User: What shape does this take?
Amino acid sequence: MPKFRLLHGLLLEDGVIQPEQVYQPQLPDRAWLELVHEPDYVTAYCQGTLTPKAQRRIGLPWSAGVVQRTLTAVGGTILTAQLALEHGLACNTAGGTHHAFPGYGSGFCILNDLAIATRTIQQRGLAQRILIVDLDVHQGDGTAFIFQDDPTVFTFSMHCEVNFPSQKQRSDLDLGLPEGLDDDGYLQILAHHLEDLLSQVKPDLVFYDAGVDTHVGDRLGKLAMTNTGLYRRERLVLSTCLAAGYPVACVIGGGYAKNIHDLYIAIPCSIGQRGMFS
Assistant: This one.
């Protein structure tokens, strides 16, 4: 997908990040994948032997290149979590595949990088109490299912209610939003919940799925946020978490605007110009 390469290039071009701040992830060990996913599913996907029905449910064609990209994104989210714990904030220029379940993929999501990274850092003793803030326009149903009975992981999904997936799972906190909600309405709801949520959960680490498919121009979104509204959202989430002393590991989540280039220019530029990372 060109959006990963485009975002990486724009962040460097606009001076939001410097080359020495860019890290290359390793491919994850298979054992890490199987902390979340069923071994037979991992094998079938990596070898290209999923049934046609299972492949259609993912919504992406199989190729060795897509397998490599998928594994790299998972490794990137694990590395992002490690760097966030060291430095306070780190961002993956991919990731956020929250529709993947233990035994199958769905909605363009093959392996659930958020869940795999959570289990990996927990197993390695780097963090135990995790908060997942999922602001992609679609409910993080796979993530909610994986952690539904886990008191160490709190899942928060704020999404358009009348949207994919049609059958929602139960997150620890779900906020279903009406179609057409604009910047001010969206941000008022988020601000009302975020600070109290941090105080309640007291996480060792926050995973933030910063999907931009809430944008008014998104083909799959059904909300009405502007570029400025998305900037304000990112500022709100990051400043609230960091001011309270909670490290944040970000992933990019979904984004299906007709003109990806304009959207990906607008948000990194506004972030850089207004000093979000300074």
Q: What stands out?
A: Confidence is low (pLDDT under 50) at residues 268-278. The first strand starts at residue 89 and ends at 91.
